[in-house]
Amino acid sequence: MATETNNMRAESNVVMLTIYQDKMDIAYSIPTVLSHFVQLSRIS
To answer: Which of 23, 1, 20 is nearest to 12 (CA)?
Structure first.
């Protein structure tokens, strides 16, 4: 029984990590997208 709860905790931790990484990727991609838009607006 104890091993089952430990496995559940490990799985939930993995899910939280993947969600956190997705949010971090979005947070990192937003500035690059904004900089691309700024460069495009400067060209035109």
So the answer is: 20
Report the distance separating Cα 19 and Cα 29, nearest Å.
Answer: 15
DSSP 2-42: HHHHHHHHHHHHHHHHHHHHHHHHHHHHHHHHHHHHHHHHH
Domain that holds residue 37: 1-44
What is the total count of domains within the chain?
Answer: 1
Q: What is the pLDDT of residues 1-44, one digit of tens each?
A: 678 888 888 888 888 888 888 888 888 899 999 999 999 888 76
